[in-house]
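Q: Is it fine to ask for two folds in a single conversation?
A: Yes, each is treated on its own. Send the first.
Q: Here.
A: Result:
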Amino acid sequence: MGEALLAGLIKSGIDKDLIRISDVSEERRRRVCERLNIRCCEDNAEVVAESDIIILAVPPTVAPKVLRDLGDKLTLSHLVISIAAGVTTSRLFKGAGKRLKLIRVMPNNPCLIGEGMIVLAPTELVTDDDIEEAKRLFMSIGRVVVAIEDYLDAVTGLSGSGPAYAYLVIEALADGGVKMGLPKGLSLTLAAQTLAGAAKMVLETGKHPAELKDMVATPGGTTVQGLYVLEAAGVRSAFIKAVEEATLKSRNLMNEKTKG
């Protein structure tokens, strides 16, 4: 996800000379810097010394340790942005040994193509200007909204995990088309574009999905017959349950990793 954000920032026109990166893997660090033509730093401390905005794009289990190592170098002049999933503000502050200007961020998989859903959860020391700066950065890879931290586990269960649910639906619809005689490539294109178009209708018209659904489902027609099958199979409740279970898993994930 860190590489996707870097590519998005560069594509949006941010001066490459303002970007610094470091990585525990020297090979990966060199590869990214050469591919994107940006400056590499030998360690995180060097990045912090030369930056105002610090993006923490590391595995969740090591995020507190990274901040612990940087604790004396981070000040309130730095805006720290964490995309480490499931790592709460309290854990991050504990790692740093102090309170920081911190924004937790939950992106998702389509950020890789600039069509992501990104949720920002700012902490109390973050200013309105900081939030606008963070929004500007993440708008380069998708749509951005601001929410409170208490929502982030549910955000993870919905938009964080949601692309996988959508891929499953696309796959199933495409398989249905193949079952009824459509070529596989054509069927997959029809399924993917149908979901993409439906999502855009919701976002651009502002209409409730139920209203849009009724626009397609004419009385006694093919669509209402298909909807009847989906409702009878419990598809709606299955999606609701999937979001619920993923949310609960997110709440418990760090505790499980810590015990492990």
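Q: Second one now.
A: Result:
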Amino acid sequence: MDRISTILVPFDFTEASKKALEYAIGFVGRLDDIKIVLAYVSGSCNLELLPENFEKLEKKYRGKLKNKLEWKIQNGSLVQTLLDIKKTERIDLIIMGTSGIEGHGEKQHTNTEELVLDSKCPVLVVPHSYKEYNLAQIALVLGKEKIDDAKVLGSLLRIARKCNAKVHVLTVENEPGIYGYSKEEEQNEKAIEYYLETFYKERVFIKNDDVLEGISNYAIKHDIDLVAILPRNHAKHGAPSQGQLTQSLIQNSKVPILVLE
């Protein structure tokens, strides 16, 4: 796959899903031949399925996209249904909104995190506080471990190429030791140079005992529009994590998070 051709947006008419759709519209643009599939899963909200709701949405974005919005309306478990749609529609990227941690947002966070950790395609999570689409600077967060499957960087390349965005590769030094010189890190560097091509801007190491704080501070200081991570829950060469960093970023980040799978 050399380009993104189909994007899935879970949509239930909530503010979080509307924000995700706005992001997808901005990402696709008016001229690109990219299809957006909206998935309405019955039971994910209490809104009545009125045809005019869908018609209003299609009319609103008719002049902003080359292709008409497509709908998939299904019953079932939200996450499993989305995974099924991902397979049948050959989805290249999922863009999903999420609410704040408080109140009803907790359930939505659970669904978002479950989808992110179970999906085998890139998932871009748009936070509830996000204001306006922009994608010029991306921060790819890496640890000291070897990248388990460097091919997933191809997805990041396609996004960077689509938006002509530059990629900063960031490692937060949260433990004592020497960073950047191990065999694994040298292998990572070669993979990054190969897959990210001219979109690779710089390699950065910053010291912070709190990884989440380090990422957040860097994002603010350097006007980062998207933070990309490679969760280790499916790790082949090391002990899988439980996606703690992924979950923390989804819950707390002020900028969108791209989970590469």
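Q: Anything structural to flag on that second result?
A: Two points. The CA atoms of residues 79 and 114 lie 7 Å apart. The radius of gyration is 18 Å.
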